[in-house]
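Request: Mind sharing a record?
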Amino acid sequence: MSLVGRPSRFIPEFKRDAVDLVLSSGRPVNDVARELGVGNETLRNWVNKRRRRAEVDGQVQASPADKDAEIARLRAQVAELQQEKLVLRKAAAYFANEMDR
């Protein structure tokens, strides 16, 4: 029994572009695979292989949905910190006025 698989019918550029499409669009692998005429598991394997390679290389690839969630979380945190800063500024002004009396 040979462990060598058959040659791929997809060129490396097609694989790279297909994986880029999945990672950049945030769309499910099944949708992209159907659109490109590739098997679901085939495309999923390509994506997983790229993610594993990126982890080994120290490159963490976040999906667009993850990035959007992180941006929303950070914006909420900025708004909260701005409110806290405003409260502290008012408190400092209040105590400064109390000290002058």
The chain has a mean pLDDT of 86. The chain has two domains: 9-61, 63-101.
